[in-house]
Amino acid sequence: MGISDEEWERLQKTLDWPGPDPEITQLNQSTSPVHSSFSIVGLKESYKVGEKISVTITARDHNKNLKQYGGDFFKAKLFNSELKASVYGEVVDHRNGTYSVDFLLPWEGQAQVFVRLEHSSEVVQILKKYRDSSFPCSHYHGHFEGSGPNKTRIREVVECNLKWGADGSWRKRNCCCEYKDIRTGMVWQCERPKTLSCDKLVHHSGGRLQNPLNRFEQQLFTK
Fold it and tell me: Are 167 and 126 spatial neighbours (Cβ–Cβ below 8 Å)?
């Protein structure tokens, strides 16, 4: 792949998001952007260009309790609005509710630290669950056209999608017309039309969007 073993290992660690130890059942147990905080370690009145600034982030839930596990998606940057300059730092997850970030000062002048909670660890797990699942969120329409009795023109519209899941199922087996991309091996499925045969597919168009989140998961996103 053109990268070293060390870089590959680092990428794997970066992609490894720790999840909550127990599954939470109350919204207030999720990470709160209001009660979470950050501080600059050993803050001084002045720094030199190229000097390191270390920041510690402390995650708390909506009851102000310290989180006992990691997995929150924080973004941290050093910026100067007048210079229109900024640099992001790599957030290190200590998996105990605390995170650390190091910045190197690249310019002369003022600098401010900005930290944002993009997603709580609970929301990250929801995103991961549906990313790894076979749940199709977007559905499409397949348009079939052909001749019927007395040479009448028949048009049928059915629901279509990619073939999902470890068992290759989106609908029940033998329910659908299947079209395989020779180059990628990916299979496209359309529900079988009532009248026309599978070879009468003309084109497809965008269909409905389906929200996979249950009510509690939706509340976590808004929380």
Answer: no
Do 137 and 210 form a contact (C-beta atoms < 8 A)? yes
φ, ψ of residue 219 to 5 degrees: the values are -65, -35
Question: Any idea which of 35-44, 54-63, 83-92, 144-153 has the lowest mean pLDDT?
Answer: 144-153
Pick the CATH number of 5-119 from 2.60.40.10, 2.102.10.10, 1.10.3720.10, 2.10.70.10: 2.60.40.10
Distance CA 168, CA 148 (A): 33
Residue entry with tokens 């996103």: 221
Domain locations along the chain? 5-119, 133-216
Among the listed ranges 71-85, 128-142, 152-166, which one has the minimum average pLDDT value?
Answer: 128-142
Residues forming a β-bridge with 154: 146
Give residue 6's pLDDT.
87
* Cα 158 to Cα 142: distance, rounded to the nearest angstrom: 5
Place of tokens 């091996």: 185
Q: What is the DSSP string of 12-23?
A: HHHH-----SSP
Q: Residue 149 corresponds to which amino acid?
A: P
- Binned at pLDDT 50, 70 and 90, residue 109 comes out as very high
Consecutive H or E run containing 223? none
